[in-house]
Specification:
The chain contains nine helices and no strands. By secondary structure, it is mainly alpha-helical.
């Protein structure tokens, strides 16, 4: 799920903007994008869910950027609403991850019977999800919560006079990402790598927000951070898929194949750990 290495200019503060003007204008652009997310209007449900989740994450990054200008009492209800919106989409997102991983395993396994079993598992999980829940309704609710949060934040922002310096927030986001990376590499736990991914993605969004016209060096840094958070996302997807595979009932998938699949995913995670460590060496604040 690539966020794109090219800068999304609608979400950037322009050089001739004040911080407040740019912040309010970016919120307006986000609202326009959110209103276009209607189930199956432009693509599949998974694409709509992905677009909405990315907007939620980007808005969270905006809340973090602007937090020095707001009180906790002002921001906490907005954070809670966004967390609830993301929760509405979590099951659909996990299903998409599981579907993708299962399809990859089906393509790589040499056993025809196992391939058929994996396809059936993916179809069965998708069918149960559709029967047990109302995914389109959850998506519409999440979009409505996102739009309400954007509207409220925009109204609040128009009355604020003191804003943080973009360079200071960039530096703070970079240091936070570095510390999270050092902790993840040292402890090698999935939770730490997931936290690193969130910090790296927040850093990416800070740079995209404040670097409307990046030079070659800055653009190279943005691309590296984008690659880092993508690899960390792949790592987290492997963890999610492994957990879901281990939840599969023995009647659906032979235990021997679950064990084999888990080993493949663990191997993938080891490879990704090496890759993110290599990329992170080129992203330093000092």
């Amino acid at each position: 799920m690539n966020s794109g290495s090219s800068l999304p200019s609608p979400f950037a503060i322009r050089p001739d903007d004040t911080v407040q003007e740019g912040f309010v204008r970016v919120l307006g652009q986000m609202a326009n994008h959110a209103r276009r997310v209607t189930p199956h209007a432009h693509g599949t449900r998974s694409e709509d869910v992905h677009e909405t989740r990315m907007l939620i994450k980007r808005l969270r990054a905006l809340l973090w950027f602007a937090s020095p200008a707001f009180s906790s009492a002002e921001l906490n209800p907005l954070k809670t609403r966004l967390r609830n919106a993301a929760h509405l989409l979590a099951a659909q997102r996990d299903l998409a991850v599981m579907q993708t991983i299962v399809e990859k395993l089906a393509r790589t396994t040499a056993n025809a019977a196992d391939r058929i079993t994996l396809v059936r598992i993916a179809d069965a999980r998708k069918s149960r999800q559709a029967t047990a829940e109302k995914p389109d309704q959850s998506l519409c609710q999440a979009v409505a919560m996102l739009l309400a949060t954007i509207k409220q934040l925009r109204e609040m922002a128009e009355h604020k006079s003191r804003w943080p310096a973009p360079s200071v927030r960039q530096a703070e986001a970079l240091v936070a990402s570095e510390k999270a990376g050092e902790k993840a590499i040292r402890r090698r736990k999935p939770a730490q790598f997931h936290d690193w991914r969130k910090k790296a993605q927040r850093l990416l969004y800070q740079l995209q927000l404040t670097q409307a016209n990046p030079g070659k060096r800055m653009l190279r840094t943005i691309n590296r951070i984008d690659e880092l958070q993508e690899k960390l996302g792949d790592y987290h997807d492997s963890v999610v898929a492994q957990d879901r595979l281990q939840e599969v009932h023995p009647d659906q998938l032979p235990p021997r194949f679950v064990r084999h699949s888990v080993k493949l995913l663990e191997k993938r995670r080891r490879r990704l750990r090496k890759e993110v460590r290599k990329i992170s060496r080129h992203i330093k604040s000092r």
